[in-house]
Design a protein that fits this description.
The chain is an alpha+beta fold. It has helices spanning about 10-15, 20-30, 40-50, 65-80, 90-110, 125-140, and strands at about 1-5, 40, 55-60, 60, 90, 115-120. The protein is about 60% helix and about 15% strand. It has a two-stranded antiparallel sheet with strand order 1-6. A two-stranded antiparallel ribbon has the order 2-5. A two-stranded antiparallel ribbon has the order 3-4. A hairpin with a 2-residue loop joins strand 3 and strand 4 (about 60). The longest helix is centred in the last third of the chain and has 19 residues, at about 90-110. The mean pLDDT is about 85.
Length: about 140
Amino acid sequence: MGVVVIDGSTVRSFVDDEEQFKKTIDERFAALDLNNDGVLSRSELRKAFESMRLLESHFGVDVVTPQDELTSLYDSIFEKFDADQSGSVDREEFRSEMKKIVLAIADGLGSCPITMALDDDEDNLLKKAADLEASKLEKKAS
C-alpha cells in the first residue's frame, strides 16, 4: 500500500509530459482492446467502465441503478469517445477523450492537495501522475 499526495498541478504536469501521457494511455488502450483489433468496441469500453464501478457506487457504497439507465449512461459515454461516430473508438479518439477527463480532474483538484492510499500494483492514472512528479523531483535533487 502506498500513499500519494497530489494536486491539480501534479495531474496537469502528467498530461503536459506528452511522451509519458501517450505511453500510459496507449498501454491502457491496449489492455482494453481485448480482441486486439486496434479499436475499442462498445462492449470493450463498457467493460472498462464497469470494472471501475463509477456508476454502480457512490463514495464506495453500492447503489442500485436500473439496468436500462446504466445502459443509457454507458452508451452516452461511448458516443462521447466515438468522436467520428464510426461505431468504434480508435486510439486517437481514446487519447483525446482521456486527456479531457484527466485535465478535468486536474481542474477539479485545483491547488488543493489530496492524499490517496493506493495498492502498489494498482494501475491508476493518478498514481502514475504522482510517480512521474516524484521522479522529476528526484532528478532535481540529484
